[in-house]
Write a structure and sequence with these properties.
Helix 1 packs antiparallel against helix 2. This protein starts with a helix and ends in a 12-residue tail after the last helix. Strands 4-1-2-3-6-5 form a six-stranded antiparallel sheet. It is elongated, with a radius of gyration of 27 Å. The chain is built from two helices and six strands, in the order H-E-E-E-E-E-E-H. It has 173 residues and is α+β, with helices and mostly antiparallel strands.
Length: 173
């Protein structure tokens, strides 16, 4: 049980710390992971305080195909939803759910249409959701550590007074 508690507490604390790190980083670096095959592009991004996922259908198929790649060459806040406008116009309480849009563009003289479905959530909301779990687990660790420290002090005190530590209590028989 103790091992499970330690594992859960470590994981929850790592989750909280990584979310805080990504939140701060998103204001300085736009991290975007994309993969494309068969005219369908998938994208995970961390940009200006939000984590998002996008599914983009490109017609006609532009022939590009690549595994997951990390693109960090863009400035934070330089992108917007394919639906147009800004992210703030398409969200409620920091969450954008199934925002749909379409965008025509030209590449090497060929006209394409990119249809998109996008979802995102504000980093502060993820941190807010992860914080109670970390707080509860940390509180358990602190109580457990304090309890064991108190027992260690009592054992040292009893040993210094000359009480045998390995005998069973008298009322146990």
């Amino acid at each position: 049980m103790r091992l499970l508690l330690n594992i859960l507490s470590t994981l929850s604390l790592l989750l909280l710390l990584s979310l805080l790190f990504l939140w701060g980083r998103s204001y300085f670096v736009l991290d975007m992971f994309t993969a494309q095959s068969g005219g369908v592009q998938r994208m995970w991004s961390s940009d200006s305080g939000r984590i998002g996922f996008g599914l983009f259908n490109i017609s006609p198929d532009n022939g590009y195909s690549h595994a997951w790649t990390w693109n960090r060459n863009m400035q934070p806040g330089s992108t917007g939803p394919v639906a147009g406008g800004t992210f703030w116009e398409h969200q409620h309480f920091g969450v954008g759910w199934d925002v749909r849009g379409s965008l025509p563009y030209t590449d090497r003289g060929v006209r394409y249409r990119q249809s998109a479905r996008e979802w995102w959530i504000a980093d502060w909301l993820l941190v807010l959701l992860a914080m109670p779990l970390s707080t509860i687990v940390l509180r358990c660790i602190i109580r457990w550590t304090a309890l064991h420290a108190r027992f260690a002090v009592e054992r040292r005190r009893d040993k210094a007074r000359g009480f045998p530590l390995n005998l069973p209590p008298q009322n146990a028989l």
